[in-house]
Each structure stands twice: as C-alpha cells, then as structure tokens.
Task: structure prediction
Amino acid sequence: MAKSFPEEVLEHVFSFITSDSDRNAVSLVCKSWYEIERWCRKRVFVGNCYAVSPRILTRRFPEVRSVEIKGKPHFADFNLVPEGWGGCVYPWISAMAGAYPWLEEIRLKRMVVSDEALELISTSFCNFKVLVLSSCEGFSTDGLASIAANCRKLRELDLRESEVDDLSGHWLSHFPDTWTSLVSLNIACLGSEVSFSALERLVARSPNLRTLRLNRAVSLEKLHNLLCRAPQLVEFGTGAYSSELRPDVFSNLAGAFSGCKQLKGLSGFWDLVPAYLPAIYLTCSGLTSLNLSYATIQSPDLVKLVSQCRNLQRLWVLDYIEDIGLDALAASCKDLQELRVFPSDPYVVDPNVSLTERGLVAVSEGCPKLQSVLYFCRQMSNAALVAIARNRPNLVCFRLCIIEPRAPDYLTLEPLDAGFGAIVEHCKELRRLSLSGLLTDRVFEYIGTRGRKLEMLSIAFAGDSDLGLHHVLSGCESLRKLEIRDCPFGDKALLANAAKLETMRSLWMSSCSVSFGACKLLGQKLPRLNVEVIDERGSPYSRPESCLVEKLYIYRTVAGPRIDMPPFVWTIDEDAALR
Amino acid sequence: MELQLGLALPSVPLSKGFDLNSCGYEAKEVLGGFDSILDCNVEKSSEEKKRSFDEAFDVQSVQVPETLPLLVWNQQTEHNYPENSSSSITRSDEEEEEDGIIGWPPIKYQRKKLCHGSLIRDANCWTVGNGESGGGGDGGHSRRSNSTYVKVKMEGVTIARKVDLSLHHSYQTLTHTLVGMFGRCQEDVKAYKLTYQDNDGDWLLAGDVPWGTFIRSVQRLNVLNNGG
Result:
C-alpha cells in the first residue's frame, strides 16, 4: 500500500494519543510516522535533564506547548548529592525561548532555577500558563515577582516543596489587578508573610480558583476571609492552624469551611490546635485527600477526624496516629488508596509513639483499594510483611523505612528477606519498592525474579555481596531507576551487567564498593552512558584505580558528557584511558 | 584490554554465565527499553530492541582488579568504605554531620526542620552507635570505628542526646556535663548515677574501672536517678 492515510488524517489520529510511551511507540513505526508524530507532539517529558540536550529536543519537536524536566537524582532529597552538582534549567529556558514562543507549561523537578531563568520565562512566552517547581532551588522571591508581573495568562503557580530565598512577601503584589485567570496557587513552602490584602484581592478576582495552598505565615483568624471569597475551592491548604480559642474566630472559620461545598482536599495544619479541628468536620465527608503530616496532634484527635472522612482516598499523617488510629482508619476509610506515615521523632532509637507493624497490617486488611504506601516505623516482622502482601496484592508502590539501619525481624531476629520476597511475589503490579531492615542477597534474588513490573528500586544498608546487585540487574525487566546507598555491591555485578544500564534511566550508588577502575571501564566501553564519579576528596585520577569511589551516577544519554560539571564530578568517557 | 562488544542478535546462544563461585546463574537477555524519547534513530531501533548478555562484558576476559576478592564477601572491612564521606553536606551548619549517617532516615529537608528532634542541635541525623547491633551479621557496623560520640539517655526523658567523650578526662566532668545537658541543676549531680553499656553488651556502673578502660569499651550511657 504505497499511499496510506493522508498526513492530516494521521495527525488527527495521533492527537488522541497522549501518553508519552504511546507517542514514542508511534514514532518508531516508520519514517513517515516519525515525521508526522514529531511535528504534532505538544507535550514532552524529559526524565533526566542530562539524557538529552535542549538542542536535540527543540530540533526534533518544533511545536511543543508543555515541557516537564527532571534534574537531580532522587537521593538529592536526602542530602546525598553535593551542592552545585548541576541540574541547571537556564540552558533549557534559553533554548526554548527561541524555539517555542507558544510554550504554555513548564514543570520542573529537582532543578536549579535561577531568578534569571524565571525572568526569561516570564518574558519569552506570551501564552504562558503553568509553572510548577517541585523540590527546586536557586531562586528568590524576586524571580517570583517577575513571573507575577509579566505572565498575563498565568493559571497555575505551584512551588511545591521548593527552597526559595525568601526576601519578602512583596512579590505577590506584582500580580496586576487585571489578572483574573488564576486556577491554582501553592506557596506553602514560603517562609515570609505575603501581603494579606493582596492575597485577599487576588482570591476575590479569581473566579476559577480551584487550588489554594497558603504558607505557614497566614494566621488562622484570617482564613475565613479567603474561604468566603472562594467557595468554589476544591483544594485548600491552611497556614498555621493555631490560635487561642475564641468563639468568634471558631464560628467564622467553621462557617467559611461549610460554605466550601466542593472541597475535596485539605493540607497545611502547621501547629495544629485540636480545639479548632471541629471547624472542618462538616467538610470531612467530602474529603478525598488529607495531608496532616505537619500536624502535631495525638491519636485520639486524629481518630475523631479520620473516622468522619468516609471518602478518604489519600492520607498523609505523622506517626502520632499510632496503631490505634490506623485501626480506626482501616475501619472507616474503605476507599483509601494511598497512606503515608511520617516519623515525628526520627533521630532517636526508642519509639516515642506506639506505632508498629500492626498498624500497617490493619490498614492492609481493612482497605481493599490500598495501592500506595510510605511507612516509617521502628519494628517489622516477616510475618507482618507476608500478611500485608497477601492482603493487598494490588499494591503498586511500597516504601517501608524501618528507622534503624539493618534492623532484623524483631520477633525472630532473622533478615526480612522472606517478608519483602512475599511483597514482590504477591504484588504483581508493584512498580516502586523501597527496602529497609536487615536484608541478605536472598531478597534480591526474589526481587530480580519476581519484580517483573518494578520500575524504581531504592536500597540502603542491605545485601552481602555483588550477587545481590547481580540479581537485580540481571532480572527486573522493567527497571528504570535504581538507587543504592551503603551496600557491599561492587565491580563484578556492574561489569557483568553493563548492558542493562543502557536500558535504565539511571543508577545511583553511594558508599558502595565500586572501584574507579570499574568506572573507567564502563565509561570507556559504553559511550551511550554517562558515568559520573562524584568525589569530594579530589580527583580519582590521583589515586590508584582500585580505590573506591564515593558516589557514582550512571545514566543513559544521547547528549554526550556534561559540560557543566563542578570540580567534584568527573564524567568518564572514551578519553579516560589517555589521562 | 580488548573486549568484544557484539551487537545483539537474538539467535546467538547465551551461554555466558555470571561466574561467581560457580553458582550456576544463567545469563538473561536484557530487553532494551524503547520507552524514551532518546530513540531518535528509527532505522537502528529494531536491531537495538534486544540486547543480549553478550553485549555485556564477557566475565571471563574482564580483568578484575587484583585487590578485589573473587569470592564471597564476609565482613565489611574499613577498606571498603570511603574514608571521608561526611563532607558532602549541602544543608547547613545546623546539622552535626561528622559522626552521623547523612540522609538517614530518608526525610526531606522541609520535614526534618519540623521534627521534634530538630530542636536539639545535634540530633538532626541518625548517629552511629545509636542502635543495638542489628541482630544478624554485621548489623550496627560502625562506619567510623574511632567515633567518640556516644548516645546518652536520662531516666524519664524521652529524647536521647549524644556526648563527645573525647572532651572529657574523668567521670566527674562527664557526669557534670551530662546532668547539664538534660537541663538539670549541676548541684544535683549526686542525685544521679551513671551506668554504661560495654562492648559485650553488659550494663555496668561507671566509675569502677579506670577512665581509659571505660573510654575504650563504652558503647552508650544511661543516667539514672540515684535511688532514695
């Protein structure tokens, strides 16, 4: 069939294909589909900013309207990536400023965003609508002021957990009075107080406002002013939720909350004072998402609250909820899909609350739709893990952090291999897994053979030998991201499975047993990988090759070695042998 | 060093195993993932779809650096840990990093700031010597065997602290410091007794052995109320 569908028809068909992986598959069918697809791709996701260059992106996809880029490896969240490592967004903004004048959305995660970058964004894209900066850093409120002042069509400004150099709250006042298109504003990570009257006026003139997440500096007494002006809110994050108990404040607040009939999600609640909790009771039956992870209230108050949230799908909470609270959760919230329990006092061995493995088992029994778990606790047993696995084969994400490194099954003192083995055996859809506790190479054998859909695996203080790493790298067909710290994994497993690394997005290994010699070998022989050695002790070339590297970050790339490396990062490439 | 990197052809028999102690592990075909936008080159992609084990290193011909033992790892030795990994601190000065395990437990910065424990300057990280020795094998292995910080608990106080033993040369100064650390009046030193856990896991009364012996064997400390 020499002539098939006209291009326009194909393009129209492709417009219904939105997922990145489907789009990528489409582009591989034949040359003409590749061409048609690339001209009509509107949204691009770059999982690793160094895997591809801005130029390659803009050359291949000329009509992009929405871009999402991720920078630093995940372990940067826990201070394992030194300051200045990289992930600077400016080159991307600069390239896109020229290539994509119609760009509407930029979403960045773990990238370094300067005020200059923000200013460039604000002046380069006349249709700019969405800016999401998740766990980013490097900018100040001055940069935000540029965005506010220049982006006339802005709908969404979300600063999710970014670290902002908070010079003042004045930036918010730069939004012009004529600007009424705000749909979503998240400033929860900001420290300083924004002008409340500016905020009030902003909310009042934004009829499409759906999401508003305030920062801690907004006091409780003022919340009702905002809520009354935005009864259409779907997601709301309070500021500090504390005040001396005053009946007028309470009744204003309760009234305002009850006026928000569409409210589905609540967050914020810093410094929560239990006396003010009942103000939200009327909203509870409609809530699907509740983030109480900054609320330092005890179990009885949490139980009272959570028992009223019959439609809850997502709960983030501190371990103050205790086993007893999780029992109540399991009994009341049958639609629960995601549970995250954070530690209130993580740096002390002895438990300060009565939260154990029993709470998680109870939730796994009582909540049939539970698919995503993040749980910090101080004791775990194989029996509990097996029970959880059997109860919830529909788990998709299971992240367990037993606070003490290498803690064994507290009942039998055995490693937790069997428990985690049961998780990967029963939970056939598992895509993300974080391990902790005492683990031998055996657990990696289970994971390698049974974790067929596993895409992301985090390992710390586990394993006995290279065999452990070999099991993972030679199995786990779907593995994309592997991050390892403080494990006795070394050269043999890496070298024997070098080809696997090209099928993954990235591998991070820190405080393991990989020698510089092995890194050189990998870097020289696999040109499609960037093998980055991060070592703050000075050049690894100045030491014998058998010396171990501090940190290793290996990722596939078509952009070649980085050119923006700080002095403590070395990319091993083909020329390494010549040095 | 010559290494053959063959292009993966599915018909090539995969006979190379990972020969570690002849465990008989079979090599597995590693399927290339084409789920990324990196695949710009359409023609090559069908060949690249399957990457076989052959493309990895032929284990027999790799020259494993001689310093690595070929066989099973047993104990971790100090040699295997980087000498100085606590220097890579990105966040500040408030955190006392020298003896702590960085980034553990894995909690983001914003949450750490709000943790109960962060009220105390030097409790912002998991410290070595904090736990029991993990049960099996070399759990609780100390990354820094010359650490002079030990954990101290006072009876009736939930939050534990750390004390740097190298700053002290006698039981008196140590007890005074500990009492002060927990906010008690220095004059009341006599109201407390100091016990410690030694290398063998036994709890002993401090003061019975010479200071030097004590220093070498102490693992953690407990400050108890002195009866009466």
Notes: The first strand of chain A starts at residue 43 and ends at 46. Residues 498 and 526 of chain A are 8 Å apart (CA to CA). The two ends of chain A are 55 Å apart (CA to CA).
